[in-house]
């Protein structure tokens, strides 16, 4: 049945315009899945990573840094809808301040870098079919953004979800869009090649790429990092941060015992019996920020040689075809992680960066912090920590998880958190304007909707 399943899946992809490199990559991973591969990396097969070079220790000649930045393109992953927060458009279109979205701030960062260093620095987004139209419409307001006729985006591919019982493409007539899924952000490699953009960038004299998620405003185009990467001669580098207890679920770096290569292991690639070791931040010290640096020429050579198939480790995600219906058919989603390419390239490396380069927004807890006075937002799009310690936020998901509900409960702005250690909210609370939180504050569920009065200062322990 699985042989028929592969044929059906490839035919479905070709009919949807997903043939060529995307179909070749899907075929590779389908065959791995069919052979029983799960992508699990046993703890016995890896060793912890020791000391790494740190950005703060790098001495880079300013002119060499500028030259490296002049040969750099900035690529942002922009295919996500922010569905975990109830959004139906690109997460990058979510407001951070009253009049500036994530995308606006990224554009501001690009403009400021161009002006400060006299470089071209193109911005290119990897969109999905769900995010492209709204994003390009928003970018149309920035007429100065395009560089040398380069496109502002390329498209992420899509692949069929597979029934877990027979590996055939699932059918879901109630919502055919749910029959498809993105192949994970590891898809950036074959999609960049298939779009022709990789060849075009190299032809235009660009040598390096800075790649990051669109919701991480900390991943700014740093000339010192560009200079360090260029001087290293490495084909690939990944920015990592020191793990804390809050980072236990994030992918970590390790060294593969069999060949000494650096690898990236995600929680989905970890056996249940190895979870204690996976989450031990003292054993596995470095987590991936998902911010990468590429040598575009070396990347193109390897991708061309392998016809777009880098051979990244498989991640088999088991879900239901309709995420909102646990009784819908169980499916496998075949995914890869772009950071896992660290094991593909001989001489790939990593660099430790400060936490200020990792400011992702995955939940409304993160969004509350970013919108508060914990951070200062600069005219150049920079995000700067404006307090000594970051407050821990835990909002009741029943009332705050979805962005519409969240905004409804902060109708006139979020509270001051710069003097807060933690804010835990249980129940349906609405916050008036000019509220200030200090210390450790727990708002308990009152049973009925409750309100924090305008101008109130809530002092915790």
Would you write up a description of this structure?
- With 461 residues, the protein is of the alpha/beta class.
- The protein has two domains: 2-357, Alpha-Beta Complex (Spore Coat Polysaccharide Biosynthesis Protein SpsA, Chain A), CATH 3.90.550.10; 364-459, 3 Solenoid (UDP N-Acetylglucosamine Acyltransferase, domain 1), CATH 2.160.10.
- Helices cover 26% and strands 23% of the residues.
- The chain is built from 13 helices and 23 strands.
- The chain has helices spanning 2-15, 21-34, 62-70, 102-117, 132-139, 188-195, 197-203, 223-232, 275-278, 296-305, 364-371, 397-400, 403-409, and strands at 46-47, 72-78, 123-127, 153-155, 159-160, 162-163, 180-181, 208-213, 236-242, 252-256, 262-265, 286-295, 315-320, 330-335, 349-352, 375-377, 383-385, 392-395, 416-425, 429-431, 436-443, 450-452, 457-459.
- It has a seven-stranded mixed beta sheet, sandwiched between helices. The protein has a four-stranded parallel beta sheet with strand order 18-19-21-23.
- Strand 16 and strand 17 (383-385) form a beta hairpin.
- The longest helix is centred in the first third of the chain and has 16 residues, at 102-117.
- It is globular, with a radius of gyration of 23 Å.
- The relative contact order is 0.15.
């Amino acid at each position: 049945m699985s042989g028929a399943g592969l044929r059906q899946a490839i035919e479905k992809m070709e009919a949807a315009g997903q043939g060529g490199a995307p179909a070749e990559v899907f075929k590779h991973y389908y065959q791995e899945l069919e052979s029983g591969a799960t992508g699990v990396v046993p703890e016995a097969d890896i060793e912890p990573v020791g000391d790494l070079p740190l950005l703060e220790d790098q001495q880079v000649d300013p002119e060499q840094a500028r030259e490296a930045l002049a040969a750099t393109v900035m690529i942002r992953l922009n295919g996500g809808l922010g569905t975990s927060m109830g959004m139906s458009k690109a997460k990058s279109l979510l407001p951070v301040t009253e009049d500036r979205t994530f995308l606006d701030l990224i554009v501001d960062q690009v403009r400021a870098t161009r002006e400060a260093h006299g470089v071209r620095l193109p911005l290119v987004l990897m969109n999905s079919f769900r995010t492209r139209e709204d994003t390009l419409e928003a970018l149309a307001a920035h007429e100065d953004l395009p560089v040398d006729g380069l496109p502002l985006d390329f498209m992420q591919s899509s692949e069929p979800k597979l029934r877990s019982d027979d590996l055939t493409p699932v059918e879901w007539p109630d919502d055919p869009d749910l029959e498809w899924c993105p192949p994970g952000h590891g898809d950036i490699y074959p999609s960049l090649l298939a779009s022709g953009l990789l060849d075009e960038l190299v032809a235009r004299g660009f040598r390096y790429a800075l790649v990051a998620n669109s919701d991480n405003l900390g991943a700014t185009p740093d000339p010192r990092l560009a200079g360090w990467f260029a001087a290293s001669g490495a084909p690939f580098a990944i920015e990592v941060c020191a793990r804390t207890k809050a980072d236990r679920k994030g992918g970590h770096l390790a060294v593969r015992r069999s060949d000494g290569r650096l690898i990236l292991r995600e929680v989905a690639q970890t056996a249940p019996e190895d979870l204690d070791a996976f989450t031990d931040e003292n054993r596995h010290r470095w987590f991936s920020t998902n911010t990468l640096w590429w040598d575009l020429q070396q990347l193109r050579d390897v991708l061309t040689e392998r016809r777009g198939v880098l051979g990244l480790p498989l991640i088999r995600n088991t879900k239901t075809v309709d995420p909102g219906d646990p009784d819908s058919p169980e499916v496998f989603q075949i995914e890869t992680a772009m950071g896992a390419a660290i094991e593909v390239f001989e001489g790939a490396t990593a660099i430790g960066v400060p936490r200020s380069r990792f400011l992702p927004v995955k939940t409304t807890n993160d969004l509350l912090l970013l919108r508060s006075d914990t951070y200062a937002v600069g005219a150049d799009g920079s995000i700067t920590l404006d307090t000594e310690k970051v407050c821990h936020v835990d909002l009741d998901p029943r009332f705050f998880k979805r962005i519409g509900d969240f905004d409804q409960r902060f109708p006139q702005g979020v509270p001051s958190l710069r003097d807060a250690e933690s804010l835990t909210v249980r129940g349906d609370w609405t916050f008036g304007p000019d509220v200030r939180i200090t210390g450790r504050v727990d708002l308990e569920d009152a049973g009925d909707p409750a309100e924090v009065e305008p101008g109130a200062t809530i002092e915790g322990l």
